[in-house]
Amino acid sequence: METPTTATVELRERPRSAGCCAEALPVRLSAEAAQQFSDDLQILAHPIRMQILDILSRSAGQVCVCDLEAALPVKQPTVSHHLRLLREAGLIDCERRGLWAYYFIQREALAALRLRIAGQLEALG
Amino acid sequence: METPTTATVELRERPRSAGCCAEALPVRLSAEAAQQFSDDLQILAHPIRMQILDILSRSAGQVCVCDLEAALPVKQPTVSHHLRLLREAGLIDCERRGLWAYYFIQREALAALRLRIAGQLEALG
DNA sequence: GGCATGTATTGACGGTTATCAATCTATTTG
DNA sequence: CAAATAGATTGATAACCGTCAATACATGCC
Fold first, then answer.
1. What is the mean pLDDT of chain B?
2. Which of A5, A35, A54, B41 could form a disulfide with A45 if both were Cys (CB 3.0 to 4.6 A apart)?
């Protein structure tokens, strides 16, 4: 692709500083890392989930689903749905006692998530 | 609904520590704040947008759409779509020169976003 | 057993979002 | 002017997500 002698080849005459589309831009953030970061953000990126985490992070155990349902503007199946997502993400867990399910925060997992997000955010800086 | 004398009313006999559904849980994170945080995360929560921000944050200007299209695994309209979202969020901007549009990061807006996110993450801690 | 109750799951519906082919709009060049 | 090209927009499609009524499941109590 190089014609060093007669330099009339595809000099598309860019207004300033040639090089557009010439050398490939190095993507430092791989598609996989970007996907992982995106997943990390997605789990937090819903108001109900965020409020659930907020409530659980302030309560030392003893929060059952009916408590959450009373505190949140959605119905019980929706609460259960978000609780499931948060549990599958490892951010919360629950313990069944009798009829009730007591949910609580998994502080280590939450801290790890915070670290990953903070790291990626800094990498943007 | 109250029969104060004979106290057999709805003592649902919770396994331990009464109070489930009795007093309302205080929601410290308001629905509006949760929504704002969610919006803040959403704009970052896409691999392509994240890679765009990564590329732009490392290049001091001079990144045109064809550069991005070459570096990313999506077609030109999709690149333009995400560029538009990022621009509407104030995180990037562009300058047209001739046929080309040069995109660049808005570092202040990005820093502000990072601060808001970091703040909310800490509040969870 | 049968009834009541807390929670999980299912299934359906509506809304949002991501993607790309096709098209349109500048703009430059011949 | 016409042809070429970078980028934006449109419109269609598909996938995804949030919500809730209905239902299922489990447990405790009679």
1. 85
2. B41
